[in-house]
Every structure is written in C-alpha cells, then in structure tokens.
Specification:
The complex is a heterodimer of chains A (86) and B (306). Chain A is mostly helical and 86 residues long. Helices cover 81% and strands 5% of the residues of chain A. Chain A has one domain. Chain B is built from nine helices and no strands. Chain B is an all-alpha fold and 306 residues long. In chain B, helix 4 packs parallel to helix 6 and helix 6 packs antiparallel against helix 7. The chains are: A mainly alpha (86), B mainly alpha (306). At the A-B interface, helix 1, helix 2 and helix 3 of A face helix 7 of B.
C-alpha cells in the first residue's frame, strides 16, 4: 500500500506535462470521487490505485493514443515504486 | 534548450518573418515595388508552407492513433480539410506567384476552399465528442451548449452587417454564393472553435492546451481575416480607408483582358490571405475602383480537497 497523498501527488506530477496541473489535479479528484477513494485518507489500496490509473489511461488514450497512454501509466507506476522504495 | 523549445522558437521566428513585411506596411514602411514583390512571394509561399505543414502534421497525428480511437477520424477530417485548403492556396500561388496574374473569381481555388469547410467542421465537432469521452472534467454539456449558443449569437450579430451589403449588390449566382458562403462558413467554424477553446483552457500548462491553443488560434485568425476583409459594397466610400488608397497596387503585369476580371485593390494585393484574398474577386459589375487608378477545478495550493 502507498500513502494516498504521495500517490496522488505523483500522478499529478506525471500527468501535468500533458494535461496541465489544474486538469491533472481536477481529474484526479473527479476519478477518486467516482471510485470512492478518500483523497485525504492515509493509504490507498493497490487495487484502488490500479483502477485509478486505468481511468486515467482511458482518458489519455484520446489525447495521446493507447501506446503512449500505457507508457505514461508505466512511468507513473515506476515513479511510485521508486518513491515507496526510497 | 530542449528540442521542443527549439521547434517552438523556430515556428515563432518563421511566423514573425512571414508577418513582418505586412506589419511593416501597416506602419507605413511599404518598401515600394521591392516591398510589394516581397509581400507577394512571402505571402503566397508562407501560407502554402504553413497550411501544408499543418496538413502533414494532421496526417501524422491520425496515423499515430489506433483505428478504434475517435481522434483518428478527427485528425483525418482535419487533414482532409487542411489538404483541401492547401490545394486552394497552391492554385492561388500558381496564379499570383508563378503566372503573376490576379486569380480569377470564381476559380478552382474556391472549389478547394469551400470543400475544406465541411471537413474542418466535422473535425472540430468530432474533437468535442471525443474529449467528452475522456471522463475528465471538461465541463458540463450545458456549458458547452451555452458557449455554442453565445458564439452563434455573436456570429449572427457579425454576419448581419457583413452580409447585408454583400447580398445587396447584384452578382452572378456563383459569385453571390461564394461571397455569402465564406463569411457564413467562417462564422460556423467559430462555434465549435469557441467550445473547444473553453475545453482546452482547462488543460492550460500542458501539451493538450498547447496543441489546441495553437490550432484554434489559427482558426480564429483565419476567420477574423475573412470577416474583416469580406466583400464590401461597390461604392468607394464604403470601402475601408486602406482600400481606397490610390496608386498602382499590382506590381505584376496584367493583360488587358484580365483587367476586366479585377476587383477591389485589396483582393489582388499580393500576400493577402489565400482563402479570402484569392477568392474575393468581384466581377466588374460591382464597380470597384478601376485597378489602374485605385488601385478545471482543483486546489491550487496542492492540498487535496474534494
């Protein structure tokens, strides 16, 4: 499990170059609400995180194509793994 | 400096270089006959280059999306519209820069220009539909309808004074159709452009915003140019002061037979926008001055709050 704030901050940071920080943050909040993720909760479950990233990937497909969207999601996962490992 | 920054800088410089001869003319530094020549070639070739590049970029963008991605069709439509536009501009460039003749009106270029609009409109509407499917907070349907409605109302306000004098002047059916169709189609394009701008502004700071801001600004400028330089009534007093300026406007030779096809001096001014420049050739009955004399919401501070 990962700290919710860390996970969401990482997602926003990684998506900001594409979506802009405002949209990245707003989209994260919107998706969290839809998925029932408590944004000010302590920890986010792995399955919740996967579902969140899938949501983002679906949207990113439209902007950058499936391949690039998968690459961006992969980068987010790698960044989270690095953060939780450090 | 990143590759992206260098590309952006190159585009800005190229755009500035293309606009400079016309901006200098507006400030009174026309440069005489040499300036006219420069504007003729810079105007024609830069438009052809930029529209052609936009068409190629749209083709490349379409190719990068999977077949089931709605943006693929959108970019294909955009490419088709821009290619048609490029063909129209190429036709004008042949007349103006190669043959050094004012292009006739109507001409083959008009067929390409008119044909481009349905594709461009379909592309813009397709992009709105596709972005709705992202699931990102791009605004409500009601907001989009309100934006479209406001833009349509503004377009109607612009269309009335623009088109009233146009339809009041007798002209052959095809010329009349084109003179009305261009401003109407431009204004129609502005409706999805306004909706997309409203969506795109929520992505400010990101690549999505950058792409759409550039593209949509191009559409806005295109439409503004067309509407501002829409055909005016025949009476010289109704012309924009800049159009009444006496003196030869055309540095390239015009055969006597061609002179009968000439229209307002601006229409044949070298370097005018292709879509409006080339196509706004009024027939002699419109009595333009003779050419020889007239010449998302989110916490900004990074806190997480719903």
């Amino acid at each position: 499990m990962v700290k919710t704030k860390d996970a969401l901050d990482t997602i926003v940071r990684m998506l900001s170059p594409y979506l802009g920080e405002t949209m990245a943050r707003a989209a994260t909040l919107a998706h969290c609400q839809k998925l029932g993720i408590v944004v000010d909760g302590t920890e986010i479950k792995t399955e919740q995180l996967d579902a969140l990233l899938r949501k983002f990937a679906q949207g990113l497909n439209i902007f950058v194509g499936r391949e690039k969207a998968a690459a961006v999601v992969g980068e987010i996962q790698a960044a989270m793994a690095a953060r939780s490992g450090s | 400096m990143t590759r992206q920054t260098r590309t952006d800088a190159a585009f800005v410089l190229a755009a500035a270089a293309a606009v400079a001869p016309f901006a200098l003319q507006l400030t009174g530094l026309s440069g005489g006959a040499v300036g006219e020549e420069i504007r003729l070639y810079v105007g024609n070739l830069s438009k052809l280059l930029f529209i052609g590049l936009a068409a190629l970029s749209a083709i490349r963008s379409a190719a990068r999306f999977e077949s089931d991605n709605p943006m693929r069709g959108t970019w294909r439509m955009m490419a088709a519209g821009l290619l048609s536009f490029t063909a129209g501009q190429a036709t004008l460039a042949v007349y103006q820069a190669l043959l050094r003749l004012p292009s006739p009106f109507p001409s083959l270029a008009d067929a390409f220009f008119v044909a481009s609009y349905p594709f461009l409109l379909a592309a813009l509407v397709g992009a709105i539909r596709a972005y709705r499917e992202t699931g990102y907070p791009i605004g409500t349907a009601r907001e989009r309808v309100a934006t479209a409605g406001a833009m349509a109302a503004l377009a109607a306000l612009i269309a009335y004074p623009t088109l009233k004098p146009v339809v009041s002047v007798p002209a052959p059916p095809l010329e009349m159709f084109l003179n009305v169709a261009y401003p109407v189609l431009d204004l129609a394009v502005l409706v999805p452009v306004a909706v997309l701008l409203r969506i795109a502004v929520r992505f400010r700071g990101g690549q999505v915003w950058k792409v759409w801001a550039g593209l949509l600004t191009g559409f806005l400028l295109m439409c503004a140019g067309d509407i501002l330089f829409a055909p005016r009534p025949a009476h010289p007093h109704h012309l924009h002061p800049g159009l009444r300026r006496p003196g030869p406007r055309r540095p390239w030779p015009v055969p006597p037979a061609r002179r009968l096809r000439l229209s307002a001096p601006t229409a044949n001014r070298p370097g005018r926008r292709p879509s409006s420049a080339g196509r706004r050739r009024a027939s002699p009955r419109r009595a333009w001055p003779a050419p020889s004399r007239s010449a998302a919401k989110g916490s900004a501070d990074g806190r997480w709050c719903a």
